[in-house]
Amino acid sequence: MRRFLQVCSVLFSAIMTAFAVQNEFLPFGSPFLGLFALVPLYVTFTKSDSFKEAGILNALYMVLTHVMTSFWLGYFKGFAVFTLGATAAFYAVTGYFLGTLFFAPFYITRKTATEENAGLKPLNPVIRIFLFAALWTIYEWKKSTGFLAYPWGTLVMSAWKWKLFTQIVDITGTRGISFLFSLFNAVVGEGLFLMSTTQKIGSNRNFSGYVRTAVFCFSLFIFSFVYGIYQYTKERIPVKSVRTLLVQPVFDSWLSDESGDAVEQSIELTQKALDEAEKNPDIILWSEGILTYPLPEYYSYYFYLPEEEPLIPFMQKTGIPFIIGGAVEITALYGDNTDAEEYSSTKHGVTSSLIREFNNSALYFDTEGNWRDFYGKVQLVPFAEVIPYADKRWMQILMQSLVGFSSGWTPGKYYNLFDIPVQAADNPHGESVKVGTPICFEDAFPYVCRNLFLEGSEAFFNLTNDAWSRTNSAEIQHYVIASFRAQEFRTTLVRCTNAGFTSVTDPAGRILYSQPLFESTAGIFDVPIYERTPTFYACFGDWLPVLFCFLWGFFYLNLYIREHKKNTKAQNLRFVTDLQSAFEIL
Question: Considering only CA atoms, which of 147, 154, 146, 253 is closest in space to residue 469?
Answer without folding.
Answer: 253
